[in-house]
Amino acid sequence: MSREAATTAGLLITAREAMEQFVDVHVDDDGALSFRHAGVPCAIQGVELVEGLAVLSLTCVVAWDLADPETPRRVAERAGQGLFGTLGAVATEQGWDVTLRYAFPAEGLAVGPLGTLLMLVVSTAAQVREDLVPEA
């Protein structure tokens, strides 16, 4: 295993341990983690951007196929309220898909603090979902 693979694998192990305190975590074939929180599917991937800079990337699919034409405005307003991550709205044939993405250097973070940081992002995604999908 290369040093890069070992670094990202180690980060993903720590992330799995951190998230297992809160949710059921599935480890995908490529080592990525996937889970659901409050109806929001999420995935965590590890990557070394450059030598010595390993990051975790968390993507939460907040909502999909939203028919409300005001979705982009509502997403922009919510994004302006300050939150961990970047909200995005993409138009599809079925409506609007909304994601929350957050990437950060994670090497050296212990299980407890990493779990807290990840749950801040995941909880924000769940709150945004409640705002956009009232019946969720």
Could you please describe the fold and organization of this structure?
- This protein has 136 residues and is of the alpha+beta class.
- The chain contains three helices and six strands; from the N terminus they run αββββαββα.
- Helices cover 35% and strands 37% of the residues.
- It has a six-stranded antiparallel β-sheet with strand order 1-2-3-4-6-5.
- Strand 2 (33-37) and strand 3 (40-50) form a beta hairpin.
- The longest helix has 22 residues, at 111-132.
- The protein is elongated.
Fold topology:
Layout: H1 3-19, E1 26-27, E2 33-37, E3 40-50, E4 53-66, H2 71-79, E5 86-92, E6 95-105, H3 111-132
Antiparallel strand pairs: 1-2, 2-3, 3-4, 4-6, 5-6
How large is the share of residues in beta strands? 35-45%
Compute the number of strand runs. Answer: 6
Task: Look at the helices and sheets and give the structural class.
Answer: alpha+beta
Helix content: 25-40%
Radius of gyration: 16 Å
Largest sheet: 6 strands, antiparallel
Low-confidence stretches: none
Order of helices and strands: HEEEEHEEH
- Using the alpha-carbon principal axes, give the shape: elongated
Widest sheet: strand ordering: 1-2-3-4-6-5
Specify the number of helices: 3
| Arithmetic mean of pLDDT | 91
User: What is the rounded distance between the termini?
Assistant: 43 Å
